[in-house]
Design a protein that fits this description.
51 residues, rod-shaped, mainly alpha
Length: 51
């Protein structure tokens, strides 16, 4: 029984680690998208001004 409990605890810990990693990646992705969007807005502004 003790072995089974340890196994379950390890599985839960692994799931938490995976979820945390996914969240970190997702946050980084969102920040990248915001930066890209700002960059595109700047490019659009410069393009409009150059015309």
């Amino acid at each position: 029984m003790i072995i089974a409990e340890n196994f379950v605890q390890r599985l839960l810990a692994l799931q938490l680690i995976i979820i945390l990693r996914f969240l970190i990646v997702w946050l980084n992705y969102c920040q990248l998208l915001k930066k890209l969007r700002r960059g595109l807005d700047l490019v659009r502004m410069i393009f409009i001004l150059s015309i």
